[in-house]
Specification:
Elements (H helix, E strand, L loop, with lengths): L21 H16 L1 H8 L5 H24 L11 H22 L5 H8 L2 H11 L6 H19 L7 H22 L7 H19 L5 H4 L7 H28 L2 H4 L2 H17 L5 H26 L12
Helix pairs in contact: 1-11, 1-13, 2-5, 2-11, 3-4, 3-9, 3-11, 4-8, 4-9, 5-13, 6-7, 6-8, 6-14, 7-14
């Protein structure tokens, strides 16, 4: 909830990816792990002096414009045009995932440590499976076990903390993952643009614009004082926009075309580990021993669900676990 951050669900598995040097593959995976794992730290630092929705809106408006500008420079402006039947999916992803999902995550991160936020967001694939269950679909029993185990882990994660936990902040982050899961499920049922980068660029612009409008009644534009924004927050915001969003997503799409999806999907449960470590080193955040155990339960449950759903994709069945927001 890049985040993360890219706004799009994971692409369908690629049959017979072109050969790639192991060193290049390792570098690509390492980049996604580090960049998207650091999103939560970047958010936390940016929010020290930037309002959450203003920060989110500006980040995605700038990133979306940059992505589309790069596509237009490489392929011509005509490449940015979308058929009319592709816009519903783009707008659904932009408004729900980039817009509501990322904005709620930023609001919640004002009160929750970056490490805890990353563990809460890591459970997003579990909500996707829960939506499928509610819609009458019948996932494999192993996936149901994963969902139940993950929900138990989330409950333990919250209950195992100390009295300083901000329950409203936690609830806001959990709500962001639910909205993201709903948006992911909806976009999978709608036609997607042929060019993944074009679709994502428009999603970022749509979501960023929606959050910018929502920031008005929230009073965030009125509270914004550019002269009071610290250099530390500006550096974090620029890092989130340029490195985590634009560069991170470019590397992610490169990996999707050249590596097995099961391998690329490992970022969903490696990123929280990176986020927790960065929060401890940079911000001196701490998790209790019971929270670490609860986080391990959540990540193990997500790994089980991801593995089961990848098997569905390999058999040509509809996927149910789109990318976790970075």
């Amino acid at each position: 909830m890049s985040g993360a951050e890219p706004a799009a669900a994971a692409a369908p598995p690629v049959v017979g990816p072109p050969p790639v040097e192991p060193a290049a593959l390792a570098a690509g995976l390492g980049a996604v792990y580090l960049l998207w794992g650091s999103t939560y730290l970047g958010n936390r630092v940016a929010l020290e002096s930037l309002p959450p929705m203003v920060s989110t809106a500006g980040r995605f408006l700038a990133a979306g414009a940059l992505v589309l500008a790069v596509v237009a420079a490489r392929n011509g402006a005509d490449r940015l045009r979308l058929p009319r039947d592709r816009w519903p999916g783009v707008l659904a992803g932009g408004l729900l995932m980039v817009g509501a999902g990322s904005a709620l995550l930023a609001v919640g991160q004002q009160y929750v440590s970056s490490g805890l936020a990353s563990l809460l967001v890591a459970a997003m694939p579990l909500w996707v499976l829960a939506i499928r269950l509610g819609g009458g679909q019948r996932p494999r029993p192993a996936a149901v076990v994963g969902v139940l185990g993950g929900l138990a882990g989330l409950a333990l994660l919250v209950l195992a903390g100390d009295q300083r936990l901000h329950l409203a902040g936690i609830a806001t982050i959990v709500a962001s993952t639910m909205v993201w899961a709903a948006g992911s499920t909806l976009t999978q049922r709608l036609p997607a643009p042929a060019d993944h980068l074009v679709g994502t660029g428009w999603q970022m612009l749509a979501g960023g614009a929606a959050v910018a409008v929502a920031a008005l009644p929230a009073g965030e534009w009125h509270r914004l004082r550019l002269a009071e924004v610290t250099g530390r927050s500006w550096v974090a915001w620029t890092y989130l926009m340029l490195v985590c969003t634009v560069v991170g997503f470019s590397v992610y799409t490169w990996l999707l075309r050249r590596a097995p999806l099961q391998l690329v999907a490992t970022y969903a449960y490696v990123n929280p580990v990176i986020a927790v470590l960065l929060g401890m080193v940079v911000l001196d955040e701490r998790l209790t021993g019971r929270q670490v155990l609860a986080g391990a339960v959540v990540l193990a449950s997500v790994a089980l669900v991801v593995a089961v759903e990848r098997q569905r994709q390999l058999r040509g069945l509809p996927p149910g676990t789109p990318a976790t927001p970075p």
